[in-house]
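During data preparation, a discrete fold description was generated, and the record follows.
___
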Amino acid sequence: MQIKAIELREIRLPLVHFFETSFGRTYERRILLARVHDQDDATGWGECTAGEGPFYCEEWTESAWAVTKEFLAPLLVGQRFDEPADVFALMRRVRGNRMAKAALETACWDLAAKKTGVPLWQMLGGTRREIACGVSIGIQETPDTLLDKIESELAAGYQRIKIKIKPGWDAAIVERVRARFPDIQLMVDANSAYTLADAPLFQSLDRFDLLMIEQPLAYDDMYDHAALQRQVYTPVCLDESIRSSEAARKAFELGACRIINVKLGRVGGHAEAQRVEQTTRERGVPVWCGGMLESGIGRAHNIAMSTLAGFTLPGDVSASARYWAEDIIEPPVTVTPHGTIIVPDAPGIGFAVNEARVDALTVRRENFTAT
């Protein structure tokens, strides 16, 4: 296939309810969408998962827009590729910027699957028709509000509950949650808010039978995470630290974690996500799909990725209605009463993009064509 044109958009999508982590609160998502066109005018959609500021990682909405406009789109437009797994290499001259690259790479996977007439999950080598869903609950105004939200999500069928923690909102909160819900699959996510000096805090969490502690220490660290894992019974899960399959291998060999969270944007797209999944599966390390407050396009790509064999734990892939009054795909993503998503059978990502809604939400747009 040859990439004839690339369309880059920014949309503004307000959340149903603010989402708070140790980084701060998000009320509205600024989301970059990429649409690629081939020589036959077939198209594929991808989404950049960078946040509104450089807090989760160094990438953010403005940096992703600039690097895509100035470098990535000009590098890619007009290029030919035999397989979508080849696309990431076409952008190798630009270092880093994996979230921006992933938007274009995943769009090419959607395009290729549509051209082949198969669902994206099948093209990726997925093995399951139904994926298990967990839910991520941000920091709340009060502990009682958090407990009520957990009750509501469990009633909706979600199989695993993740709560965000930060200094001052950690052990006492976990104790209250576990006292109210003694038998649920429960995990905590620190988003790099602590240091190794806080090891006693994490040792105190061992008594709550948590599924995992996600990224407790620095976003670019493995060494201290390995030291922490030796001191706690609860599995440490790495998120921000894992940007490639090589990073996953090194983390496992160091003993820095027992579980890995895979995010398409963080690793640069589907091809690298496949490699991370293979690397971890061969070593018996479970993985799961993390979320970045994606719109339906990013959510659809997450569903496809989550069908790979190594994704054995419920991921943060939940219903559209948890985040958006109206999503940008049709039909919206829904979760069954027993906490699963049925994987779509339509070619590509399996959902139709509501282009009229995307147009209405668009605040800027750039087009790139082959000369």
